[in-house]
Amino acid sequence: MRNTHVDEVDGIDRPVLALGTDYPTGHVLEAHRHRRVQFLYGATGVMRVETADGSWTVPPHRAVLIPAGTEHRVTMTGVSTRSLYAEPEAVPWFPRRCQVVDVSPLLRALLLAAVDMPPRYDPHGRDGALVALLLHEIRGLVPLPLDLPLPGHAGLRALCEGFAAAPGVHEPPARWAERLHVSERTLHRMFLAETGMGFARWRQRACVLHALPLLARGEPVARVASDLGYASPAAFATMFSRVLGAPPRDFRSASG
């Protein structure tokens, strides 16, 4: 099924529904939730998924797993999606929190084939076997570090959201502590308790996630590195590779 809203077919008696949708650049799916779990794959472009407890940046050829009932907002940048919507009882192993995962060539081919299946596919025939293989492949995927946890503390969350929109690698924690009227030591304790990450690691992750859509649309690595405050493209590339396990050029080429 292509360019069909899931609500139109949600009642179909099949454990998994596959939908393909094309979105214009800058399209935003405002906060919503699904009765089924969702495996949201971006065949092109970059997605940003936001929930109450964090955000997930999804580069091309990756996917995000969204649990049933999770309210989420999605910003699309030149995205064509292939989504699977599964009954929760069909995937008891599904994560309870969103996760971004890599998508292998095999899984990609299965997803592309799935959206061409009829909505009331034969669960005991070829299409049913394709769905079973899809779920088998998804179950073994390992999460990628593409999430940015956000704190519940209102003041700290506001600072985090502002930083994520325009990050800089040299942002001093002392400035945050001053704005929150706490000591630096208290700030670091708050940060770890609220996000599960130290300030420096979170700051670094925010820089990487901000860079991803810029790289995907072809921005030069040198310009991205400079905008984030890195002394050189090499310093940025080293940090980027340490976080994601691949150099920035891999994420630039993904958009071509």
Automatic annotation (TrEMBL):
Superkingdom, natural source: Bacteria
Keyword Transcription regulation carried by entry: yes
UniProt KW keywords: DNA-binding, Transcription, Transcription regulation
Limits of the HTH araC/xylS-type domain: 177-254
SUPFAM superfamilies: Homeodomain-like, RmlC-like cupins
InterPro entries linked to this entry: AraC-bd, Homeodomain-like_sf, HTH_AraC, RmlC-like_jellyroll, RmlC_Cupin_sf
Transcription keyword on record: yes
Protein name listed in UniProt: Helix-turn-helix transcriptional regulator
Species of origin: Nocardiopsis codii
